[in-house]
Design brief:
The protein is 42% helix and 19% strand. Strand 6 and strand 7 form a beta hairpin. It has a six-stranded antiparallel β-sheet with strand order 5-4-3-8-7-6, with helices on both faces. The chain is α+β, with helices and mostly antiparallel strands. The termini are far apart. It has two domains: 63 residues, Winged helix-like DNA-binding domain superfamily/Winged helix DNA-binding domain (Arc Repressor Mutant, subunit A, Orthogonal Bundle); 168 residues, 2-Layer Sandwich (Beta-Lactamase), CATH 3.30.450.
């Protein structure tokens, strides 16, 4: 006896078609393929990057060019400033970056250092809010920038807030790279740093990503104990000692992150 309980006249109807737009999905995949390490692409490179046929990749690239998001020079396609509008839709309209702005600004004003807020996104710390201190030499972090989660103070705080299964899945697939002599590149060491971030409620890096730079990050936690983001600051080694960061910077970061967390 059949277990199908639908009326007889419904059982012959085909399943409704998906309402998704395959072409839009392909175009967005091509957009996401551009980045700091892939600033321009040919049709062949785009097809390989997003697992499309060359014909489909070419249609996506030409459509994005017609819409003003890309410009074509010979065989290569490059993003135009119009591409920034896609990110602005999140940065201007999303609740978290909007709520975070006064808190990163308050931290900047108290410490005299640039402050940032980042969220976890596909194995990276994605920076969604920032308050700058203008100096001749910048610390280099900008809105929309990404740092590898395993290597950054911000990323380790965010990883510490993930469910254990998700965190371990990430550690099984990540491929650490050495960028300075101080980089931590073994999975056991990285796991230890993440566990320390969870236990201590903050993380630091000392010239691990870039020589001459130190960073500190704390979690932004809501009333239910969920980690939504990480608030951080980076300083030049020649200007601020690690001892000063722990003594003076950590309380400010924690105070501003806690105030933001109470709104979430």
């Amino acid at each position: 006896m059949s277990s199908d309980t639908r009326p007889a006249n419904d059982r012959t109807r085909p399943s409704p078609p998906s309402e998704g737009m395959a072409g839009l999905a392909k175009g967005l995949a091509v957009i996401e393929a551009f980045g700091a390490e892939r600033t321009q692409m040919t049709v062949t490179e785009a097809a390989r990057a997003v697992s499309l046929s060359p014909a489909a990749a070419r249609r996506c690239l030409l459509t994005l060019t017609e819409l003003g998001y890309l410009v074509q020079e010979d065989r290569y396609f490059r993003p135009t400033p119009r591409m920034m509008r896609l990110g602005e839709a999140y940065l201007e309209g999303a609740t978290l970056p909007t709520l975070a702005r006064p808190f990163v600004e308050a931290g900047r004003d108290e410490l005299g250092e640039s402050m940032s807020l980042a969220v976890y996104d596909e194995g990276t710390a994605l920076f969604v809010a920032r308050a700058e201190v203008h100096r001749i030499v910048s610390t280099g972090v900008r809105l929309g920038a990404r740092l590898p989660a395993y290597a950054s103070a911000t990323g380790r705080v965010l990883l510490a807030g993930l469910p254990e299964e998700e965190r371990e899945r990430y550690l099984r697939t990540c491929e650490p790279r050495r960028t300075t002599p101080h980089s931590v590149t073994t999975i056991p060491e990285i796991r230890d740093r993440i566990e320390a971030a969870a236990a201590e409620g903050f993380a630091v890096t000392d010239e691990e990503l870039e020589l001459g730079m130190r960073s500190m990050a704390v979690p932004v936690v809501d009333s239910a104990g969920r980690v939504h983001a990480a608030m951080s600051t980076s300083v030049f080694v020649a200007r601020v000692t690690m001892e000063e960061m722990r003594r003076r910077y950590l309380p400010v970061l924690r105070a501003q992150a806690s105030a933001l967390g109470r709104l979430l």
